From TrEMBL:
InterPro entries, sorted: Met_Sox_Rdtase_MsrB, Met_Sox_Rdtase_MsrB_dom, Mss4-like_sf
Position of the signal peptide: none
Biological process (GO), any one: response to oxidative stress
Organism encoding this protein: Hymenobacter gelipurpurascens
Sample GO molecular function, one term: peptide-methionine (R)-S-oxide reductase activity
Catalytic activity line of the entry: L-methionyl-[protein] + [thioredoxin]-disulfide + H2O = L-methionyl-(R)-S-oxide-[protein] + [thioredoxin]-dithiol
Record bears the keyword Oxidoreductase: yes
Name of the protein this chain belongs to: peptide-methionine (R)-S-oxide reductase
NCBIfam families assigned: peptide-methionine (R)-S-oxide reductase MsrB
Coiled-coil zones: none
PANTHER family: METHIONINE SULFOXIDE REDUCTASE, METHIONINE-R-SULFOXIDE REDUCTASE B1
Amino acid sequence: MLRWFDILRFAHYSNPEPPRRLEQAEEAWAAQLTPAQFRVMRGKATEPPYRNAYCRTYESGIYACVGCGSWLFDSSTKYHAISGWPSFTQPYAKNAMKYSLDASHHMQRIEAQCNVCDAHLGHVFPDGPVPSGLRYCMNSESLLQVTSENS
């Protein structure tokens, strides 16, 4: 189980090795993604709170990266954080994401990116529920839920 100390260590020193890598030109990403997905995933924008696909859904399944299909979260770690965005307590695997310091918007935050394709996913905060205390606050535009019906 990852804890805040682990996230800080990754952001400051060295992220876990990705299971694979996917790199392509920004033009290819623009052709593959919707304009909203491109704004969030490649431009590091944030979608509006509460008006996004996965804020209020809790079906069983896996949440994958829209860009590369890498598994990011299991639905069992999703919880209602009242933040306006889908929130999770743990990634699917330790190396599913990479972390970096983000000082934009006059805040100190930890950005979470897909470790395979570098897509911006959202941010991680140390105010989640026990036992990990983590809150992965993600953008729905970066996620694709894969359920048993569509897997």
